[in-house]
What does this fold into?
Amino acid sequence: MKRNPQNILIIRLSSIGDIILSFPLIRELNNKYPDSNIDYLLGKKYKPLLRPISKYINNIYGFDKADDLCEIKRYRQMIRATNYDWVLDLHNKLRSRLLTTFIGTKVRRIKKYQLKRWLYIKLGLKIYPEVPVYEKYMSTAPIDIDFNEDWYLHDCKQDKIKAKINKDIPFFENDARVVVIFPGARHYTKRWPLTKYYQLVERIKRQTDYKIIIAGDEKDARVLQQKNFCSEDIINVSGKYNLLETMCLVSLCELVISNDSGPMHMGALFHKSQIAIFGNTVTQFGFAPLNDKAILIENNELNCRPCSHIGYESCPKDHFKCMRGISVDEVFIAFKKLTGNL
It folds into this structure.
C-alpha cells in the first residue's frame, strides 16, 4: 500500500491572485493528510499572503529574485536534502524548473496548455480548456482531491493591523457600511478608466449610505492623484498599506470593487460581495474570482478579446473598447443588486 506523503512542497513564486488560488489545494491537502508537513516556496515579497493560512503550512520559504542564481542553488539543495515525497510545481516556468532539476523526486507540474492558449488569443480558436486555475493546481497532486466550498477565510486574525486600520479609517468604528474600491491593476488594459471609477464613486456617494475607501499600492497611488477621491464619505488609503494590511482592510469591508487584479482574489478569499471588471482578459482563462457572491462584468461583444492572457500598456487596436464599452450604469446596477437596493 502506498504510504501517505510525509513531506509536501508547493511552489508558486508569484503573483497575488495565483498564490491565493492555491489556498484550496493547501486546505484540502491538510484535510486529507493532517499529519503531513506542507512547505511552500514563493517570491519573498509575497510571503505575507500566506500569513492568514500559516496554520496549514509547516515552512514558508521566500525566494529573492534579486539574488536569482544563488537562490536557485540554495533552494535546490534544500529541496534535495529534504527528500520531499511530493513536489507540486504550480508555477511551471524556467525559474521553478531550474529549482527542481536533479532533486531526486518526481515533480508534478501544472499543465498550462500554452499552445492552445496562444491559438485562442491569436486565431480565436476556442480550444483552450476552460478549467479554473484552482482545479489545475489540484490536479498536480497524485490523488483525487474534491474542492471544499468552505475554503474562505472569515477573518484576517491580525489584531494589531486591525487596530491601525480602525485608527486610520473611522468608518469601521461607527459600524458604517463600507465598500473598498481598487481602481488599479498591473497593466493598463486591465484597468477600467479612472474617469469611470470617479463617476461611480460620485454616484455611490450621492445615492447610497455607503462609505467608500479607495485603495491600491504605491503605483496606484501615483495614478490616483489625477482625481480627488477624498471627502467626508471617501477615504483614499492607496499606497499606505502593505500586502498583509491590504488583506486585513478587505476583510473588514462589506463589498469589494476591482479590476481583474490581486485585490479581486482577496475579495473572494474573504467571501465578500464583489464586482470584478474584466478588460482584455477573459474569464475562460480560469482566473475568475472563486466566489459565489461575485458579479463579473466584461464586454463580450468584441472579437478582439482576449488580446492577451496578462495585459498590455496600451490597447493593440487603439480603441480600448473592452473597458471603455463598460458603462458606469452597468457597474452601479451590479452594486445595487449586491447591496439589496435593486
Q: What stands out?
A: The domain at 7-138 is CATH 3.40.50.2000 (Rossmann fold). The two ends are 57 Å apart (CA to CA). The longest helix spans residues 68-82. The chain has two domains: 7-138, 159-338.
